[in-house]
Amino acid sequence: MENQSVLDTDASSGNSEMGLSTKTRGYLLEAAKWARILAILGFIMVGIMVLVALFAGTMFSALSNSIADSPVPSFPGALFSLIYLAVAALYFFPILYLYKFAKGIREAFQGEDEPALVRAFQNLKSHYKFIGILAIITVGFYAVSLIFALVGGLLASSF
Questions:
Q1: Residue 10: which pLDDT band, with cuts at 50, 70 and 90?
Q2: Burial class of residue 127 (count of CB atoms within 10 Å of its CB; 0-12, 13-18, 19+)
Q3: b/e map of 9-35 (b: 16 or more CB within 10 Å)?
């Protein structure tokens, strides 16, 4: 049985000039279409997050003024806006990488441009790297929060 690489450039196997089989090209084009849809939805969500951040400060200020006599401390609207803007900025970059991947795949196959294909996969790598690092940071944050909660619970129960 002969192993045939996906990147084999044998013309008899139906491969393109870039060395990808027709089936592989189809899968990549379909993945690029879905990546583009997800990226566009991501950009819309980033826009909504920015709008919420801009108007949340005003809403929190109005809310804190209306319940000034409340014993519950109010959350500063400006702080909420800054946190939401920071989250939107963090979310923007992996979405941009995903969009560049989708656009690069389409351009690479339309013009049989191998450097565009390489750039597209570099953007996909950057997307996954960003998401992976963010996930590691999030898990670490949760672990530290859990430790603080357990220590706080133990200290509170000892009094």
A1: very low
A2: buried
A3: eeeeeebeebebbeeebeebeeebeeb
Q: Which amino acid is at 58?
A: T
Q: How far apart are CA 118 and CA 114, in angstroms?
A: 6
Helical segments of 4-113, H only: 22-66, 77-111
CA 25, 130, 114: angle at the middle one, nearest 5? 30
Residue type, 136: I
- Cα atoms in the Cβ-side hemisphere of radius 13 Å centred on 83: 8
Q: Please provide the DSSP assignment of 73-85 as one string.
A: PPPPHHHHHHHHH
Residue with tokens 């196997």: 13
Q: Which of 93, 104, 97 is nearest to 32 (CA)?
A: 104
Confidence band for 6, pLDDT divided at 50, 70 and 90: very low
Cross-strand partners of 15 = 21
Q: Kindly report, residue by residue over 81-136, the tens digit of the pLDDT.
A: 888 899 999 999 999 999 999 999 999 999 989 999 999 999 999 999 999 999 99
Domains of the chain, by residue range, sit at 11-158
Beta bridge partners of residue 21, listed in sequence order: 15
